[in-house]
Amino acid sequence: MRVVIVGAGIGGLALACGLTRDGHQVRVLEKADGLRLDGAAVTIFSNGAAAADGLGVPLDGLGGRVETLSFGTPDGREFARADLRELHRRTGYAVATVPRRAILERFADALPAGTIAFGREVTDVETPAADAPAADVVVGADGHRSAVRRAVLGDEPAAPNGWTSWQGLTKDVADLGTHARCLIGPQGLCGLMPAGDGLLQWWFDVGTDRPEAGGTVGWLRDRFRGYADPVPDLLDHLTEADVQEYRHVTHRVLDRWGTGSTTLLGDAAHAFPPSQAQGANQALEDAWLLRRALAAGPGNLRSYERIRARRVRRISRLATSEVTNRPPSTAARLAGRLLTPRLLARLQLAAIRRASSVLNDDRPE
Ligand SMILES: Cc1cc2nc3c(=O)[nH]c(=O)nc-3n(C[C@H](O)[C@H](O)[C@H](O)COP(=O)(O)OP(=O)(O)OC[C@H]3O[C@@H](n4cnc5c(N)ncnc54)[C@H](O)[C@@H]3O)c2cc1C
User: Fold this and answer.
1) Nearest to 3 by CA among 174, 141, 175
2) Nearest to 353 by CA among 101, 74, 87
3) Are strands 78-83 and 25-29 parallel, antiparallel or unpaired?
4) Residue of 14, 17, 21 lying closest to 42 (CA atoms)
5) Which residue from 35, 101, 116, 250 lies 20 to 30 Å from 17 (Cα-Cα)?
6) 131 in ligand 1 pocket by Cβ < 6 Å?
7) Atom 38 in ligand 1: which residue has the minimum CA distance?
8) Bridge partners, residue 188, by sequence
9) Of all atoms in ligand 1, which is nearest to the CA of residue 11?
10) pTM here?
11) What confidence tens digit (pLDDT) does each residue in 334-352 have?
């Protein structure tokens, strides 16, 4: 089949890798003049790693391995810890925090030369590539402001939920080994993850309050200066240029994502906040299942959408509630202390499994 994919993000490129391996003729149209390599890192959980592997381009060796993840109060007192090696043991796929750049480059390098056409903003979904024969299938992988979604489903922009991540990747500020930490208090959540090559992925999640223009670093210092080490050190190192703003937005997850031979994938179909670290993973899951759906021709698109919608909705609701960004109740802290790190990891894996097509071997038909 001839497949046109709109958008060269993680989801679009992953799908392109899988489809070219199946012998389809694939064209990726990207509006930017090159890969959009900015953004910080994303955490690839076992489901995302399994999906990438299933698409023929494993993400092995990228980023920083994350073996344990702890949650604590701002003074550093830990109230829960997950042993993420349990996910590796049970699925065969480890957890890693990987700069977006590294993922995009790995996928792009695995594609035949000329697959991606840059500087091609798609506005007309009927004939997305006027210089090529008509496509059998068009996939909108064009992110949360998707033009394809607007054209086929009507304008349903992803809505902000008030929260923002102020985030970045900084070298040589703290060595966490393979341990990731989240400190949660009334001022917001500070997350710290090792992202490989001495990089620290950090983010400050804050609801509604915003800094004055140009004064983000001072505002973050005022707000988070009482948080435990290494937060004060990190804040001392930051300049305005280090901080990226990432607003949390959410789509209503519809049962149907397209019409005829057009469908959606990733943030175009179901943008949700990064607080469950599943955005990139769910885009990889979509790509994995869509490849499987297209193996039997374009007839299974609605089935692909139904299966994915059912799975994504669960994680989207959880992420949109921002429950993990809010200070936990006394009961929740107590429960966290009672659960062993392995048990907590198993609960996390159970939640991921419910949202996963690849770990459940879903089949569209
Ligand atoms: C620049 C950028 C930075 C990001 N930073 C982070 C981050 O730090 N942390 C995090 O958790 N998530 C981040 N994300 C989001 C995360 O990458 C996604 O949630 C996840 O990877 C799923 O992505 P996707 O492929 O569905 O869409 P996206 O990653 O949004 O990719 C969509 C692609 O489509 C292209 N596009 C859009 N409209 C059109 C059009 N009309 N025609 C052609 N091409 C079009 C865009 O330029 C983009 O390359 C970022 C996304 C982007 C684009």
Assistant:
1) 141
2) 87
3) unpaired
4) 14
5) 250
6) no
7) 142
8) 185
9) 25
10) 0.96
11) 988 899 999 999 999 999 9
CA of 286 to the centre of ligand 1 (A): 15
Model pLDDT for residues 103-128, shown as the tens digit of each residue: 999 999 999 999 999 999 999 887 77
Q: Which residues pair with 26 in a beta bridge?
A: 3
Q: Which residues contact 84 (CB under 8 A, 6 or more apart)?
A: 66, 67, 68, 69, 94, 95, 345, 348
Evaluate if residue 130 carries a pLDDT over 80: no
Atom 3 of ligand 1, residue of closest alpha carbon = 39
Q: Which two tokens stand for residue 225?
A: 């200066």
- 142 Cα: distance to centroid of ligand 1 (angstroms): 7
DSSP 205-224: EEES--PPTT-HHHHHHHHH
CA–CA distance, 255 with 302 (Å, rounded to integer):
9
179 ligand 1 Cβ < 6 A = no
Best residue for ligand 1 mutational test, from 5, 17, 30, 166 (most atoms within 8 Å of Cβ): 30
Q: How far is CA 115 from CA 12, 37, 57, 149, in A?
A: 12, 18, 16, 23
**Phi, psi for 115 (deg, rounded to 5):** -65, -40
Q: Where are the beta strands (DSSP E) in the chain?
A: 2-6, 25-29, 41-44, 64-65, 68-72, 78-83, 96-99, 116-117, 137-140, 159-171, 179-185, 188-194, 199-207, 244-250, 262-264
- How far apart are the C-alpha atoms of 189 and 206, rounded to whole Å? 7
Q: Which atom of ligand 1 is nearest to the CA of 268?
A: 26
Task: State pLDDT tens for residues 300-326.
Answer: 999 999 999 999 999 999 999 999 999
Domains, the chain, ordered by start: 2-159+249-354 (3.50.50.60)
Ligand 1, atom nearest to 286 Cα: 26
Residue 79 dihedral angles phi and psi, to the nearest 5°: -120, -5
Instruction: Check if 63 has its Cβ closer than 6 Å to any atom of ligand 1.
Output: no
The rounded percent of the chain whose pLDDT value lies above 90 is 88
Q: How many Å lie between the centroid of ligand 1 and the Cα of residue 143?
A: 5
Please report, rounded to a whole number, the percentage of residues in the chain having pLDDT higher than 70.
99
Place of tokens 């959540």: 189
State residue 157's pLDDT score. 83
Q: Is 121 in the pocket of ligand 1 (CB under 6 A)?
A: yes
What is the pLDDT at residue 173? 87
